[in-house]
Specification:
alpha/beta; two-stranded antiparallel ribbon; 4 helices; about 35% strand; globular
């Protein structure tokens, strides 16, 4: 699994002009699922992402987590994180999980966020969404379970 995690002051996702998820301070997580991902990789990513301490403490150091700042989470599915741009000018998305697995692990990730104490706001898998965010810092991190779990890259 792959995620782009952005520390935000605010973020929202809209479908057909209607806001379906919105947060204040917290994490905007764009989530991609690969074909070999499992519930284990899903749990690994959720625990790592939600446990990050990337908010500034009283000394200006990134030392505080979501819990310390009362942060929220917005999760948006993003299969394009598995886009392959090595050849030509049009990305290939064959490295992304198929819709059935992608949706199942997206839903599992949402459930894990709730279990870990951060019930997420979210978009809808497969929908055409408009995402807005105010990047705080800016702080943006790339998380990849291939690296987090010390497995060979695909």
């Amino acid at each position: 699994m792959r995620a782009i995690l952005t520390r935000v002051s605010s973020a929202s996702v809209a479908i057909d002009g209607q806001v379906v998820g919105e947060i204040g301070k917290g994490f905007l997580i764009l989530l991609g699922v690969g074909p070999n991902d499992t519930e284990e990789t899903c749990r690994c990513l959720a625990e790592k992402a939600l446990g990050l301490r990337i908010f500034e403490d009283e000394n200006g150091k990134m030392n505080l987590g979501l819990d310390a700042v009362g942060g929220q989470v917005l999760v948006v599915s993003q299969f394009t994180l598995y886009g392959n741009c090595r050849k030509g000018r049009r990305p290939s998305f064959t490295d992304a999980a198929g819709p059935e697995l992608g949706n199942a692990l997206y839903e599992k990730f949402l459930a894990l966020c709730g279990e870990l104490g951060y019930p997420p706001q979210h978009g809808r898998f497969g929908a055409d969404m408009k995402v807005a965010s105010v990047n705080d810092g800016p702080v943006t991190l790339i998380l990849d379970t291939d690296q987090l779990m010390n497995t060979p890259r695909r």
